[in-house]
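Sample entry (766 residues):
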Amino acid sequence: MKKLLMLKRQASLKRETNDKTTLCTLYFRANIYMSKPVNILNQSYAQTGQSKQNNAMGMREMQARAFEKRNSQYLLIKSPPASGKSRAMMFLALDKLKNQGIRKVIITVPEMSIGKSFKSTRLSDFGFFADWEVADRYNLCLILAQSDDRKTAIFSEFMNQDKEDDGLPQILVCTHHSFRYGFDAIIKEGGGVEIFNNTLIGIDEFHHVSAGESNRLGMILDSIMTHTTAHIIAMTGSYFRGDAVPILSDKDEGRFEKVTYTYYEQLNGYEHLKSLGLGYHFYKKSFFGALAECLDTTKKTIIHIPNVNSQTAETDKYETVGRIIDVIGEVKGRDEETGVTTIRTHDGRQLLLADLVTDDDTRARTQAYLATITERDQMDIIIALGMAKEGFDWEYCEHVLTIGYRGSLTEVVQIIGRATRDSKGKSHAQFTNLIAEPEADKLKVEDSVNDLLKAITLSLLMEQVLKPKINFRRRSELDLLGKGDLEQGTVVIDDSENAPSDRVMDILNKDRDEILASLCQNPKNIKKYMAAENNNIEAQAVSDTVIPSIIRSKYPNLEPDEVRQIQEGIMRHLALNSQGGIVNGTNLPKDAVIENERRFIKKGNDYLDVNTLSEKDKVQLSDTDVIRERDLPAGAKIYNPKTKSSNVNESNPSNSFVKVGSKFINVNNLPIDLVMSVNPFHDAYEVLSKTVDKDVLMTINNVVNANRSSVTDAEVLLMWPKVVNFIKTKGREPSLNSSDDIEKRMAEIMAYARTQKAKESVVSND
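Predicted structure, serialized as tokens:
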């Protein structure tokens, strides 16, 4: 069968046509409908070069941030692809070996190809106090031909060496697979887990771990953390697994110090890359007919094809590769040494293409060739199935074209990371997801709608991640005298009453994206929000149940007040981004209208608020007399007519604004009703309505509205204190006929509660 498939693919590669129009266009010209490409994100970056600059010790910005936490026993580094996590691990491990009493270091990676990132490196050449030296024997990722048993023996040998002999190698690099086998072998031989005392275990791509009982690596780590003095450094470009199982238990996760370096910080600090697009193409009938529209062969591109078992797959993987090549052009030859194929495009250009799909002996040689690329002209297009994602480094890649929905946010993050490496001559990076529109006449229409909604909402989450980050700070932490400027995107939390705990602040600033991921990856949540009419009728009701439920599930030890504070922070984050994000005061347009901005006139050496003037005096003012609050000079004295005294104007603790309608509002003055009624998926619906035809939109609406949110027991419990407070303050019950959406929802909750109580009464009487 395999030979037959290979012959089938070879025949596909040899197909030729005299017409320069692509074969796929010829095949599918009739009855093809495809929407225009839609970019949900078009983000520009400042090209500061900061994320690539080295300090005196040879550390980039992220690495230096991680090194500040070098004394932590358990450290979790969340940082995007290409930010330098591997070298950060080297810096930390060497400090623990030299200065913290650690005797051995084990670095474990998910794939052997990633192990090359931890080869011996002369860090002292760049200012560090030691070099990273890994003996070839103890880099198990380089031992290609040796069996699992041989690698396990070397692992045991390394762990059983005399820890006091400084002349022995102290560093071992292996895969997660070899680490599991090695650990089990040591235990089977009668050794105790205590053998890992004073050992550093560095885990790359930490999202491969989970707290589930079936995850052996997770169970091993729990045992080591419980019974030994070992240190653990975990690194990941995405802390999202894509399933419902957490990476660590709440107890274990609480023991980790966290270092977060965002995608935005990384991209904003590049030298060459200045913009990123995150887009979608929708097609009907066949994705082959859409490829010509969304594949720009002048861009360095990785094409990820769908798994043969997915709904998106239309034929076997060999035929898929052949037909994609037909879209690009025609085969002119193949280098037998590297397996690289030369393609002549339909407009006469020559391209080099790498096939990482065909599982034959040539693929290994192609992978080896790709690992040695040092110039742009050495490769143009790569076609891959399960490869060219995690840890794959082709810095010249400008476009990742992914066919079919990807169910895991981790996979999406890794795929985007293939295009976001900084490279001379690359100014824009693009992620495009080519996905099918649901068709009403298909049997599994709900599954198709689910995939479409998940793809769009995942992209909306990525939009939140890739834009400037929002930082939460307590008001008591700020320098109100204005001696220090707040970083852009700061949201100040008033902690004069019911101050948020350190745990709350840590979750808001470091774990917010994980909560958003849980919200976005659940199709039931998506449907509930999208079924909320006019963006606010049921949005608050949904938010008051869904988001607290996610928070309590992820952090079961939180107090009710802490859950509420985190919910409000998450909602504020969503509200700010739904309004276009935060604008720093220094970047406001000169003619910007700021909500409730004070205006002054100069009176002697003091400044007088216009609102304190009589109506007669106000009428007589000219525009040149009025000074806006933002234009007051430093140290300006504000005169108070009531006290007949002057006080120095204190700078606003937050100089961040969000545009709502035609006005800019200080983020700390954002109306609470706007914050709590935000519908995070409304924009997704807007995108859909503009890019699909009415029949498809009706199909989506039917599926979504079938899941319209209704009152639940959980919502009653959460909303009942608000109902009680409403009755207490208003002196009446909420009305079903109210024009206020929230009051109307409270009335529905009261009606539901009474109905349930009546049912219970009937049951008890029976």
